[in-house]
User: What shape does this take?
Amino acid sequence: MKHLLRTIAGLTLMAFIFSSHFSALLALEDQFEISLTVTSTDVTAPSTPTGLTATAISSSQIDLSWTASTDNVGVTSYRVYRDNALVANPSTTSYSDTGLTAATTYAYAVSALDAAGNESARSATSSATTLSAAVPGGGVGTTRRLAIFGVAVTPELHGATITWQTNLDALGTVEWGNTTSYELGGIASSEYLTLQSAHLGGLSAGTTYYFRIRAIDSVGREAFFTDTLTTLPLPEGLPNPSGFTAVPRESDILLSWRNPQISFDALRLVRSKTFYPADPFDGEVIYEGRGEQFVDTDVERGIRYYYTIFTRGRDGSYSSGAVADARIPLPGEPPERPKEIFERLPKAPAVHPRIADLTFRDFDFIQNGRKREVVGDTVNVDGSLNLTVALAYERVPEVLKTIVISLVSPGDPEKQFSFLLRVNKDKTRYEATIAPLGVSGTYVVRIAVVDYKNQGLKKIEGLLLATVLKGIFPRGWSFQGIRKFMVDYFWLLVLLLFLLALLVEFIRTVLKKRQVVPPLPLPIPNRE
Amino acid sequence: MKRACHIALVILVLGGAVLQSLSAAVMSSSNYKIQSDSINLGGGLSTSTSYTQESTFGEVATGESSSASYKIKAGYQQMQEVYLAITAAADVTLSPSLNGLTAGTSTGSTAVTVTTDSPAGYELYIKASSSPALSSSSDSFANYTPAGADPDFSFTITSTVSEFGFSPEGTDIAQEYQDNGSACNTGSSDTDNSCWNALTTTNELIATKSSGNHPSGTAITVEFRAENGSSHTQTAGAYSATTTLTLLAL
Assistant: This one.
């Protein structure tokens, strides 16, 4: 019995062990590859151009313009057909057809091309008739001459309006350009009037253009008027003090700066414990005057103080503000290293999407009323001129924010100066005007936008290459300017004087050696 | 003497179990196990209430014996429970090549024959090794998205996308891929180039049978299709999808 039970137990155990293995699944795998080649061949033609207009400008010129076409990849150029013959291949949506015969009707059509050579269908035809040829002396037995007078130019920032009168009803065209070839464009009127006006658009601010008015009456008499116009310069703000620093000392904070080289009323230094005062009234006014230094003794250890210094102009307006902050360390604490602006703020990624989209290229760098060209993230500026940094008002949402620009001194990354960008009077821009940098070199530019509503910070970085173009002398021979020059270049002047003294001494020595001693008269021989 | 035999029996059982598990571990994965190798250490032994069998190990009591209440498959030859085979699936080159700047369709297929003598039949699965399945070094085709829970009867995409999908064909295809001429997962037809689904990294059942088909086997074809929408730009390049068919004996 015992034997039987033991055998049964053993066999049961074996069955259990083996059956658990046999219950596993049996499977086979088969792997293979699927492949596909995708090429990139553009076979789609652009859309047909629309809106073609042909305008006779003169007896030998007709101007064309049309609405741009679209393409799945991109339109590269257009073909202009005159009376079904290909005459031009412009890359823009306008063309001036010249060398035509007077008083002749021409029919035009245009098509669009892409990089792969696909051509669209031709546009609807537009025709125009060149003007009659000008007849010298007025023609048809009359001695009256056509004359242009009363020309008035109203310049704008990016354009100008020109009005003029003629003594007889006449058509008018205005052409303009950077040279007397008037290569930039032309506008023609289509009615014979004695008072005409034309608006030129798409011009650069603060720039001089050549323009020419041509009047032609119905019998072909012509009159011309040429002149230049200058568009309005981009406004620049009041320059901030430069080199503003706040240095914590044992029991006070030393604030120093350099005054702007303009005629101004006073500087206002404002302090806050919360953050940089955003305007001249956003904090405690601790100094007003024309000095270049102030010691803030009303400070406690361990508390960070934020300072903004503003220039107040003669008209009562204020500059955007230069900022700095300092904190006297508590006993035992090591001195603080200069930190990148806003490094101490908690890093929060949430900013308004329009703020998040900002790039270096959204900012304008204006000197002498003209924008400096920004290439990638680098801008070249004249280090001897004021520099206004501006951001169009509509580029950022109207949430509560602070925009600060910091420039890092070339060759000394620990030295940086920061300025607020504030809204200008007519609410068109956020701007800050920085006094002439004065030193050539590459400045790292850091722009920080604090979005208080979304508790976020957007940082933008770029480079500013400053070249001091107008020599080493500061602008204007004011006493302050001369003094500044002497201070800045003291050792250079000493060296120059020393070299000059050496040179003078050398010349003196050379001249001395070469001095010819006149020979003594020969004794007359005694003839006795 | 008897005591010694019983001790030997226990040791051999345990040792056999260990060896069995070791050899099984060498040839198994988390999903399946290759049929066990010959260890020559055991036969299938069963018990019933009406008999006992005691045998030593080795090729004893080989062959198949049966009664109303049990079946014994003892010995190495009898350990081979089922026959399972799948022919090698050929690589697929979708054609024609697609122009990434225009609308276009590219198709291809591969076919396998699955055979089993398992009386319970088989299941055939398909999956991709990556998601999306069809991709190049810089771009990919989105996995096909059917309009509802069932595969789409017709392959349809919008003009702004490019997609890649598959459709199985054959007599044993899963119900999900059978159609009634206009909709899938209904009816019992197998309309050509119909019932399209996404090729994902999860095993998808495409064919099944509840009985053996040995020796003739069953042919299963898998169609593949990649399509570029008319407003979609597909980056030029060489695209590929590594695909695995898994055949299970039930």
In short: Chain A is about 10% helix and 45% strand. The CA atoms of residues 67 and 300 of chain A lie 67 Å apart. Chain A has four domains: 50-129, 136-230, 239-327, 353-467.
